[in-house]
Every structure is written in structure tokens, then in C-alpha cells.
Amino acid sequence: KRFAISLSNLFSVEKDLEQAHIGDQIKSNKKNQPFRKLRKSAVDDALRVLARGKIDRSGPSLKTLRSMMSAYFADLNSVVPAFREYSEATNQLHQLNDAHSLKSNHTKKSSNQVP
Predict the structure, then answer these.
(1) Nearest residue to 45 via CA among 4, 10, 12
(2) What whole-number distance in Å separates Cα of residue 80 and Cα of residue 98?
(3) Which of 31, 29, 27 is nearest to 14 (CA)?
(4) Which tops the pLDDT comparison, 100 or 83?
(5) Whole-angstrom Cα distance, residue 107 to residue 114?
(6) From the CB of residue 43, how many other CB atoms can be counted at a distance below 10 Å?
(7) Does this model's pTM top 0.90?
């Protein structure tokens, strides 16, 4: 945007100089000045089209980036519940292991006491 504004302003200054006929004695060959008949509005319109084209080209990339960031955010939000589930499952496994150990210890004691 700043580049387009700078070009537009530069073109305005050149047009003002051209209309003031400053340096006409130096510029003897008008064929070497292809932009002499251009108007500022034409330059501004062309710069607007250029800027719009750049914005339109970046749209699909930004949409892809947005969907990628949304997926990352969803993945990040699923980490805490996944750890919670993992912790609960681990606790349940320890409880089952402890219960199994108690049961096997109880069975061994009762088998040792039976003559």
C-alpha cells in the first residue's frame, strides 16, 4: 500500500513538473517519454488493480493458514483431556494390578495353610 502511494505521489510530482514546463529545454526528444500522456487517475487505477490482485492472490493462502491454525488449536485443546484420560486409565490399571496382587497373595496364603 505504501509503495503504491509513493508511486502515485512520485507520478504527481512528475506531472506537476511536466505541466509547469520545467526542464523542457533539456527534454528535447518527447518520443523517449512514453508516459507523458498518462494521467494520474490512470496510474492510480492501475495501482489499485495491482494491489487488489495481490490481496486476491493471498486470500487462498490465508484461508489454508487459518484452517491449519484451527487444526493446531483443536489438537492443543485435546491434549489436556487426553492426559486426564491417560491418568485415569493408569490409575485403573494400578488398582486392577493391586487387586490382582492381593487376590494372588490371599490365594497363596490359603493354599499354604491347607495341609
Answers:
(1) 4
(2) 27
(3) 27
(4) 83
(5) 11
(6) 19
(7) no
